Amino acid sequence: xxxxxxxxxxxxxxxxxxxxxxxxxxxxxxxxxxxxxxxxxxxxxxxxxxxxxxxxxxxxxxxxxxxxxxxxxxxxxxxxxxxxxxxxxxxxxxxxxxxxxxxxxxxxxxxxxxxxxxxxxxxxxxxxxxxxxxxxxxxxxxxx
Length: 144
Prior knowledge:
Layout: H1 5-39, H2 43-66, H3 73-101, H4 106-129
Helix pairs in contact: 1-2, 1-4, 2-3, 3-4
C-alpha cells in the first residue's frame, strides 16, 4: 500500500505552520505586553498593533518554509494581506469579547483567541494564499 503523501504533506505543513505561528505569536505577545504594560495602551488596541507587527514574520515563514510556495510575491502578498485582515478582524472581535465581556486576563485571552483563529488562517493560506499556480505542486519541503 502506498503512503498517502497528500495527508503527510498537509500534516508537515500544519506542523510547520505551528512553528511559524509560534514565532509570530511571540512577536505579537511581546508587542502587546510592551505597549500595554510599558506605555499604558489599552489592551484591544495593543493586541491589534501586536497582530500587525507579526505580519512580516508570518508572511516570510509561511511563503517559503511552510508552504514552499512558487507563487510570486506580487500575487501572494495581496492574498496574504486579505487573509490577514480577515484574521485581524476575527482576532480583534474575539479578543474584545474575551477581555471586555468574559473578563479573561488579556495575555491568556490572546493565547486562546490565537488558537481559535489558527485553523481558519491555516486553511485559507494553504488553499488560497500560497497555493501554487495551476499545474504546479507544493512539495511541503521548504527551508528558511
